[in-house]
Structure formats: C-alpha cells, structure tokens
C-alpha cells in the first residue's frame, strides 16, 4: 500500500493488480476509513481481501534554494539549499562576498514558508571597482614626470607593468632608483592602491688630465753630459667632467693634483772627482695644471739619498704636512706613515691612499717621493618637519562643537651633512615627503543649520616654513516664519496680521 502526499492518493498492489483512490477528503481528520474492492476477474475472488488498519501519514517536504549572482546572472558564490516540512517557516541569508556589494533579491521572499514546489531566492550583487595609480618622480628635481591612473573591477588584473615606461625614461638618460609596483602587475582591490617609481637623472663622469714635467740636465763645464738627465715623476692633474644624460649639461670640477703639487728637491748625482755647482735642485712649490714644463741644469766642476712623504687633504687640495728624510744610500729610512695617518684619522680624516711602503723603505741614489692622500669624513643625518591642518566645525551661537574636526598632515625632510674635520654642517633643501598641498575639504551638512563656508579650498604651495593651519567653520541655525491673518468675512477686510518667526 502506497500513499503519495503530493497528489493525496492511496494505491494498493496485489499480485499483478493495482487500485488507486483519492483520499484528500480524509487528510487532516481522524475519520475512520476502509478500503474495499467491488469486483474482480480472473483468479482474484470477489471476497473481502482487506481489513481495517491504522494509517500514519508523513508530512511532505519542501525546499528553498538561495542563489548568489552578479547583475549579469553569473554565479559568484555557492548556492545554499534548505528543506523542511511544508507550511513551516524558512529563512535565507545575504552573504558578504569579497569584491561585491549586495543590491537586491528577486524570486521567492528571503523568508517565508516551505511549499510543495521548490522555491528559489536570487541575491543579486554588483562588482566593486578598484583604482590604482602609479606616479613617476624625477628624484633629481623632485618633479612628477607622469602619473598612470588605472581602474577596473576588484580582483581583475591591472594588465599594466612599469617596464615599458621605465625603459622610455632610461632611454632618455634616467636611471631607476626604486619601483614598488609589483613586477608581474597588480590586481584591483576594494582599497585604492598607490605606487611610486623613482628615477634620477643619470650623470656620466669622465676625466681630463694634464701633466707637468721637471727635467734636470747634468753636464761638465765643457757642456758634455756628466750623467743621465733627471726626470722627476710627472705631476698629474685631473679634473672631472660630469655630463647630465638627460639635459646634456656639463659640469667641470676643479683641477686636482693626483700626486702632489710640488716637485721635491733633487740631490745632484755623485760623480767621483767632481763637485756640482748645485748640491741639489730645490723643491718647486705651487705647481698647477697651468705650469709649463720645468728644465734646470747642474754643472759639474771637478756627493746622499733623500725621501719625501707628502700628506695631502684631497677635500681641500692642500698639503697637510711633508716629511723630508735623508740618509746614506742603502740605509733604512726608519720611518713609517702609521702614526701620522692615525693622528689625522683621530681628527676625522679618512685614508684614501698611500704609496709609501708599509714597512718603510731605504735610501737610494735617487730622490724618492711618496704621497699620502686623506679626505674629510662626512656624517649624514635626516631632519624632519611636519605642517598640520585642522578644521573646526562649531555652532556660531554657542561655540560648541558641531562635527568632528578634520585633520591632515604634510611631512618634509632634508639632509644634514657634518664635516668630521671642520665640524661644518651643510643642509640640503627641504623636500616634501609626499605632497605640498592640502586637498579641498567639503563642510559637513547639518540638518537645520547653514555653514558659513561650504568648503575649505585646496591650500597649495605648502613648505616646511608654513605654520600649522587652523580654520573654523561656523554653523548658523536656519530661521522659519509664520503669519496669521484675521479677516472680517462680512466686509472682506483684514482686521489684523500676526507675523511670527523662530
């Protein structure tokens, strides 16, 4: 025996025979029911084949499907199906779906009762829009070269990378400093994304050289050669030429002595049985890149080694000190530069180079010239400032706060370089950390009140010297009016008028 709730029919199968009866009239009552067969044919006898029994009915089930779709009908989250006894209550839920905003629902009600037929509730969402901006900044000038503004649906790829734009600038002579934009591209999100690409104007440094020579001729009184000419180590001078690859501008440095700016004294060579008219050629000081080659002559009429070590301040180009050593040929000099170098590093100098042998040297027949180069050590520090903007919103009549203050801050930085030798400090220009202007601010709308300033305009040209800015927006209560007119209907005349305001 089978009961079908949807059609409210009872079926009985006996052998190969089946009988069906509509029992909807009995559903929901306690009325007794019997089931009989009036007649039959074949092997089934016309006998009472049934007996009264007690029937138990199970309530039919209904179902509700909640779909989550975008405004194009595309599924954006798994559907949720619930079921329960028909006529009992059901509820469905709105989901928080990342990247989407709920708009409306259609189909069945969000809450109701189960029915025999399946019900469908469609929750409809719209795609959120994301924004990305990429700012290209010339770090040399602080100027914005260009700004890329991108927008699309959240979770969509930006389909943009910085490679091509960076190459266009490096082709013009720029050099990449930093790029915080993802190398494989970004994805739009609910939150605006800001990226910065810093470039500098690339400079190529080359050099120009000049050389000044000193030659000493050794001759007998008759003019014939007494010894090979003395050719001093040439004094080499160099200056830098810095070429800006973007602008093409060239900047020339000062001429710098690479190995000193003086020719040391030169002891005349010993020739047995001969005495030179000059035991030595004195030191030539103040040699510059513009000095012409020097030639001198020593005449022998019929004999000691020297060493000089020159300490040069490369920052100023000045000679700090000079050690003149002398002694017999092949004797040790008994001098090293370690103590003198330490005395200068203790004062803030840094060693650049020294061509004097670490363990000392020996005197030879020829004068020896060595140079120790030092430079001023530098300490760099960062100095910061902030400029604040506060907008107060108050009621004009009481001065009480009408709305929360609006606050904004701009940061500025500069570099302080301290010379460890002279203690002199040099300051770079103040530079804005992010921006040099305060954006326009629209005053809040307060019901029943009017602001004396609908907006606080954008403030540009903010510098590190700008004082903190305070602006007050006052709200005045709006006024209403009422008039009451008294009329004599007999004559039609106005008896009086009352004017009220508040």
TrEMBL record:
Residues 206-303, 381-478 form the Mub B2-like domain. Keywords: Repeat. It holds the Pfam family MucBP_2. Gene3D superfamilies: 2.60.120.200, 2.60.40.4300, 3.10.20.470, Putative peptidoglycan bound protein (lpxtg motif). Residues 64-126 form the MucBP domain. Residues 131-199, 306-376 form the Mucin binding domain. This is MucBP domain-containing protein. It comes from Lactococcus lactis subsp. cremoris. The lineage of its organism: Bacteria, Bacillati, Bacillota, Bacilli, Lactobacillales.
């Amino acid at each position: 025996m089978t009961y079908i709730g949807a059609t409210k029919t009872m079926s009985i199968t006996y052998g190969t025979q089946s009988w069906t009866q509509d029992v909807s009239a009995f559903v929901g009552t306690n009325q007794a029911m019997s089931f009989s067969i009036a007649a039959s044919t074949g092997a089934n006898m016309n006998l009472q084949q049934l007996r009264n029994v007690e029937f138990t009915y199970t309530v039919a089930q209904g179902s509700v499907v909640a779909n989550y779709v975008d405004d194009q009908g595309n599924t954006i989250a798994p559907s949720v199906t619930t079921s329960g006894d028909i006529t009992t209550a059901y509820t469905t839920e709105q989901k928080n779906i990342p990247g989407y905003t709920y708009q409306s629902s259609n189909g069945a009600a969000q809450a109701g009762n189960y029915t025999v037929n399946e019900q469908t509730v469609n929750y409809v969402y719209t795609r959120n829009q994301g924004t990305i901006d990429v700012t290209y900044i010339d770090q040399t000038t602080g100027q914005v070269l260009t700004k890329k503004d991108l927008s699309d649906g959240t979770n969509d790829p930006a389909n943009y990378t910085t490679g091509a734009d960076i190459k266009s600038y490096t082709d013009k002579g720029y050099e990449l400093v930093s790029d915080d934009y993802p190398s494989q591209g970004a994805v739009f999100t609910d939150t605006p994304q800001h990226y910065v690409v810093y470039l500098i104007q690339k400079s190529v440094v080359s050099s120009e050289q000049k050389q000044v020579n000193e030659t000493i001729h050794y001759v007998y009184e008759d003019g014939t050669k007494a010894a090979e000419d003395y050719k001093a180590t040439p004094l080499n001078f160099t200056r830098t030429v810095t070429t800006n690859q973007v602008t093409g501008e060239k900047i020339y440095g000062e001429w710098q002595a690479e190995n000193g700016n003086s020719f040391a004294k030169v002891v005349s060579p010993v020739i047995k049985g001969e005495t030179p008219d000059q035991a030595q050629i004195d030191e030539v000081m103040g040699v510059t890149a513009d000095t012409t080659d020097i030639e001198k002559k020593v005449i022998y009429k019929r004999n000691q080694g020297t060493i000089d070590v020159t300490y040069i301040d490369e920052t100023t180009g000045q000679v700090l000190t000079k050690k003149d050593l002398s002694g017999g040929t092949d004797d040790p000099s008994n001098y090293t530069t370690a103590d003198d170098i330490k005395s200068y590093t203790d004062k803030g100098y840094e060693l650049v180079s020294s061509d004097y042998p670490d363990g000392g040297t020996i005197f030879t027949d020829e004068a020896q010239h060595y140079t120790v180069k030092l430079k001023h050590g530098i300490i760099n520090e960062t100095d910061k400032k902030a400029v604040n903007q506060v907008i107060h919103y108050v009621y004009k009549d009481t001065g009480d706060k009408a709305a929360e203050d609006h606050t904004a801050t701009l940061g500025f930085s500069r570099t302080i370089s301290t010379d460890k030798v002279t203690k002199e400090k040099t300051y770079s220009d103040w530079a804005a950390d992010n921006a040099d202007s305060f954006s326009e601010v629209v005053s809040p709308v307060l019901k029943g009140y009017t602001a004396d300033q609908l907006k606080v305009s954008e403030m540009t040209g903010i510098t590190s010297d700008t004082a903190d800015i305070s602006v007050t927006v006052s709200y005045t209560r709006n006024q209403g009016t009422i008039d009451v007119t008294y009329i004599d209907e007999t004559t039609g005349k106005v008896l009086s008028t009352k004017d009220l305001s508040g």
